[in-house]
């Protein structure tokens, strides 16, 4: 590069990316450069820098930016002209140029202000475009306007309002039998179609890059980095604010990356913050049936039962939540009892009975599930569960807690006659039950 060329410098952590200033770029050619990946903090990269990349790197095959604030029309034109996101896009220019790209198979427009009409025009106007990724696009996700019924047949839209695995499974109709196994089935294919290979590899990178980064940072030698990365992972597998749910693709990415075992190793740390973050991630993952099975197979019930005895409220809350999720499955209930989990949950309620924290709702919910088993119902009562639940009904008026207490007491009485007698003999039990039946909340009654 000629020394007279003015240079733009963008800091990327401890590194620097040096780019020639536009338009003084004709002398700066990097014909051997094929891949440019910058991120996640690219907010200081200007449109001029992007133009420089387009002009100076004629053989570029892959260009990935993350965190760009804004790009003007000239930069988009330069990219389209020399080879072919950002949150703010000039969709008129996108439709004018990108739909003419003959080899465009997949396009990621996530985290942009794209609208349904633009998505329709992109898919219908481009003959080569097969898959459109539109995650975290608020305008597109409003109400039911994102229904895939609005999009051309034979085109895949990957978004939170679509069934991602079902969409991808349509590409492997004759291969995959279970939609949630689409990525593993694809990897095990013996004779892979080149076009399909490119699309699946690209989609996998889009969906799993955040999980992979978190898993790598969780193995850092610095415990504060481990803790932050674990909290990111715990949040990353959950999507949506209201009616939050666990994303199956991200859960699979965690499992494939050895995340379950890694989380249990971190849960054994002496640091309460790391214990809390790890158990929170385990709890969130356990909502998924496949992940819950993996948690149990890795000895997770024993680990969670031990952590339920923690004197840290945050650790106790997340641990009780994990046991609550796992106790939904019948065969897990007995495993929890064998690991001492029932007694640990009862002690947890007695320890935090006046805290008003969600730890009580989680613990009562787990006991309610376990008490639904006629054999284990007696054990719940024998280890002090009845007394703990009655105390909770008397002292905690939070609706979520009362709802789970009501379920637990109902299950205790329903399955074992001796428990009915014990309820009648337990001081304050009948009064507590009567009060619950007069609750203003139907879910409690």
UniProtKB/TrEMBL annotation:
Domain of life the protein comes from: Eukaryota
Sequence ranges of the ARM repeats: 258-300, 299-341, 340-385
Repeat among keywords: yes
PANTHER family: PROTEIN ARABIDILLO 1
Gene3D superfamilies linked to this entry: Leucine-rich Repeat Variant, Ribonuclease Inhibitor
Protein name as catalogued: Armadillo repeat-containing domain-containing protein
Record key words, sorted: Repeat
InterPro entries noted in UniProt: ARM-like, ARM-type_fold, Armadillo, LRR_dom_sf
């Amino acid at each position: 590069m000629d020394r007279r060329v003015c240079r733009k410098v963008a800091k990327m952590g401890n590194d620097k990316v040096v780019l020639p200033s536009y338009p003084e770029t004709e002398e700066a050619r990097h014909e051997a450069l094929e891949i440019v990946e910058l991120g996640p903090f690219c907010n200081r990269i200007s449109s001029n820098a992007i133009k420089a990349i387009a002009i100076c790197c004629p053989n570029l095959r892959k260009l990935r930016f993350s965190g760009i604030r804004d790009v003007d029309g000239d930069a988009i034109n330069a990219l389209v002209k020399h080879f072919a996101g950002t949150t703010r896009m000039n969709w008129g220019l996108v439709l004018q140029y990108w739909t003419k790209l003959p080899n465009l198979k997949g396009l990621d427009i996530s985290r942009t202000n794209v609208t349904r009409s633009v998505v329709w025009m992109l898919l219908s106007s481009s003959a080569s475009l097969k898959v459109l990724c539109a995650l975290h696009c608020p305008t597109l996700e409003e109400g039911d306007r994102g229904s895939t019924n609005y999009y051309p047949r034979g085109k895949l839209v990957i978004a939170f309002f679509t069934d991602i695995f079902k969409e991808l499974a349509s590409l492997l109709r004759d291969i995959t039998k279970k939609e949630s196994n689409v990525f593993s089935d694809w990897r095990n294919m013996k004779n892979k179609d080149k076009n399909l290979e490119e699309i699946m590899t690209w989609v996998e990178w889009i969906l799993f890059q955040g999980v992979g980064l978190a898993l790598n940072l969780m193995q850092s030698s610095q415990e504060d980095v481990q803790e932050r990365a674990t909290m990111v992972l715990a949040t990353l597998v959950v999507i949506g604010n209201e009616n939050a749910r666990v994303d199956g693709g991200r859960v699979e990415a965690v499992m494939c990356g050895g995340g379950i075992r890694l989380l249990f190793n971190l849960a054994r740390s002496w640091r309460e913050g790391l214990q809390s973050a790890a158990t929170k991630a385990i709890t969130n993952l356990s909502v998924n049936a496949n992940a819950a099975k993996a948690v149990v197979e890795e000895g997770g019930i024993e680990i969670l039962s031990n952590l339920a005895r923690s004197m840290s409220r945050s650790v106790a809350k997340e641990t009780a939540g994990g046991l609550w999720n796992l106790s939904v499955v019948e065969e897990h209930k007995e495993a929890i009892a064998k690991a001492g989990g029932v007694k640990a949950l009862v002690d947890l309620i007695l320890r935090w009975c006046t805290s008003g924290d969600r730890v009580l709702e989680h613990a009562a919910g787990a006991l309610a599930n376990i008490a639904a088993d006629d054999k284990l119902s007696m054990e719940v009562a024998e280890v002090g569960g009845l007394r703990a639940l009655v105390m909770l009904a008397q002292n905690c008026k939070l609706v979520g807690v009362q709802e789970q207490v009501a379920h637990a007491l109902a299950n205790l009485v329903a399955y074992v006659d001796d428990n009915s007698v014990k309820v009648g003999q337990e001081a304050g039990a009948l009064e507590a039950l009567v009060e619950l039946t007069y609750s203003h909340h139907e879910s409690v009654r």
